[in-house]
Design a protein that fits this description.
Shape: rod-shaped
Order of helices and strands: HHHHHHHHHHHHHHHHHHHHH
Largest sheet: none
Oligomer: single chain
Strand content: under 5%
Number of strands: 0
Helix content: over 70%
Number of helices: 21
């Protein structure tokens, strides 16, 4: 009965270490098997330590409060960080661990060693791995609890490092008993903690980048709808956003720097940290890439991006930001990372990621191409309505271009202004020699060649990063759509001539927005529109080119883009 009572007492989590050791020694004196007694002893110590650990990390567990501040005194950055809820929670838990968990763990290990020294008549030896397994399990429990708390919301890195160091220092007594084991366990824990904290810091930076860009969308939309604001105000908002994005990257880097002190002189762990930092920097800039791809419709957008409606000014803002990131900012941020983490060590882990640079350029190109597509489709919508809402068999003789042509030209002027300002690519004024000669006659062979060429023209092509290329892409889409809508109608003589005058005027006016060779491309498309109408005309008689030119010249005297 004494033996059974001692065994039950030994398994109890209420028993103190000294009492547990004394009970174990008594059992050994009674002839109990040493392996069994040691197992019962460790079972009881495990239960005690688990309960203690739960109390240390219990929600609302009292810890050491931050030092009070005098009334009216301004908090320093360190004081402010210590007062954050996540800092208070971790600091309090780690303080309790050093007081209520680590000392009993050390006592349990020393008690185990005393039991091993007691001679036992059974002659069975205790497995040498029993104690390392016990200590490993208890240290892993502790590390997991700290990791769970940090994962909920990571405190500032300086607070995290301070708390981890306090736990590490409290384990020196245990380290003296099992130095190799403690070094291995804690080295792995420190490496995991540093990587987890880094991921958390850069995850926050990525979220902030998305928030900044969503805020820029709102500003672009508001300024675009305002009659008192202009594109200069949009440029100012873009500059603010670019600066904020870069600062979020710099902040994440400076917050990560104290994590190096967790790892100490461990070269392998420091190399892993640098590789992790390289991956996080890549992920940070890739979040911009993914936002662009989602907004351009290439990938499924995130919830935040899906809520953003289409805004052409915002699309060009993304292009501008992306170009600046690719050309300058990404290399700058990587350079700061290298200075902070590598210094003069001669290592080269932190080199700008060529894949990220390429992806950023590709994302910007996707957006400007989508801008041209959406803008071209907007013009095509105007042209479609104008074609399908009219009976082309009964129209009167064409005296001037229709109102829809004026609408299209004003839209083109608006697109041109946006592109010139936001891409930093202003339009050069045209001279008289650059204009089209409306009296130039083409023989049937030339017309047929141009018609065949226009049919093979790639309408939805990748748009380059310049104003001329984007305008060309927009008009290519609009004029090709115009051609398709005309194919669905039947025309009378005057209906055909109205299409002829419309195409001549719009072709003449858009030449101001394009290089000469690109204007010729559009001439071919417009000629194809007229040819298509002529093929569907019951009386295919074109207006004399001189009369077409005269009507266009007369309209130019009164037409205003404003």
């Amino acid at each position: 009965r004494i033996r059974v009572a001692l065994e039950e007492r030994l398994r109890s989590p209420e028993l103190l270490v000294d009492e547990a050791v004394n009970s174990s020694v008594t059992l050994l004196d009674l002839g109990e098997d040493q392996v069994k007694v040691v197992g019962e002893y460790l079972t009881g110590r495990t239960a005690t330590l688990r309960r203690s650990l739960s109390e240390c990390f219990a929600p609302g567990a009292a810890g050491s409060a931050p030092a009070p501040v005098e009334d009216g005194a301004e908090l320093t950055k360190d004081q402010e960080e210590l007062r954050r809820p996540e800092s208070v929670a971790l600091h309090g838990a780690c303080a309790k661990v050093t007081e209520a968990y680590v000392p009993p763990l050390c006592d349990a290990v020393e008690g185990f060693q005393k039991l091993i020294e007691v001679r036992n008549a059974s002659g069975t030896a205790v497995d040498e791995n029993v104690l390392p397994d016990f200590v490993s399990a208890r240290i892993e429990d502790l590390c997991d609890r700290i990791t769970q708390l940090v994962d909920q919301k990571c405190p500032p890195s300086r607070v995290l490092v301070s708390c981890i160091h306090s736990v590490r220092d409290s384990l020196r007594r245990l380290h003296s008993l099992l130095p190799a084991l403690l070094t291995r366990l804690f080295r792995a824990f420190l490496g995991r903690t540093a990587m987890d904290a880094m991921r958390s810091l850069f995850g926050t930076a990525c979220s902030q980048m998305t928030s900044e860009l969503c805020k820029l969308h709102g500003e672009c939309k508001k300024l675009g709808e305002s009659s008192s604001s202009g594109l200069d105000d949009v440029l100012e908002e873009i500059a603010k956003t670019e600066q904020a994005l870069i600062m979020h990257g710099f902040t994440a880097l400076t917050e990560c720097q104290p994590l190096q002190s967790l790892l100490g002189p461990d070269k392998v762990a420091n190399q892993q940290l640098l590789r992790g930092l390289h991956a996080q920097l890549s992920a940070f800039f890739s979040s911009f890439v993914e936002l662009c791809r989602g907004y351009a419709g290439e990938t499924e957008p995130s919830k935040d991006v899906a809520e953003l409606d289409w805004c052409g000014v915002f699309a060009l803002a993304l292009v501008r930001v992306g170009r600046h990131l690719e050309v300058k900012a990404i290399n700058k941020v990587w350079g700061v990372a290298k200075d902070l983490f590598e210094g003069d060590s001669g290592t080269s882990e932190l080199q700008p990621n060529a894949t990220v640079l390429k992806a950023t350029r590709h994302a910007s190109q996707l957006v400007i191409t989508h801008y041209a597509t959406m803008s071209g489709q907007r013009l095509a919508h105007f042209l479609r309505n104008s074609v399908q809402s009219r009976n082309w068999m009964t129209v009167r003789e064409a005296q001037e271009p229709r109102k829809v042509v004026e609408m299209v030209l004003r839209e083109v002027r608006a697109f041109d202004s946006q592109l010139a300002k936001l891409l930093g690519d202003p339009r050069k004024p045209k001279t008289g020699g650059d204009r089209r000669n409306a009296n130039r006659f083409k023989n049937s062979m030339e017309l047929e060649v141009e018609r065949l060429w226009a049919k093979k023209l790639q309408v939805y092509a990748v748009i380059p990063f310049n104003r001329n290329g984007a305008i060309l892409g927009i008009l290519r889409i609009a004029f090709k759509a115009f051609f398709e809508y005309v194919r669905e109608e039947t025309f009378g003589k005057f209906g055909l001539q109205q299409i002829q005058v419309d195409c001549a005027f719009i072709g003449e006016m858009v030449r101001d927005f394009l290089e000469t060779e690109d204007a010729s491309v559009l001439d071919s498309l417009l000629d194809e529109v007229v040819a298509s109408a002529q093929m569907r005309c019951v009386e295919p008689v074109l207006m004399d080119p001189a009369m077409v030119e005269a009507r266009c010249e007369e309209k130019k005297k009164t037409f205003r883009f404003d």
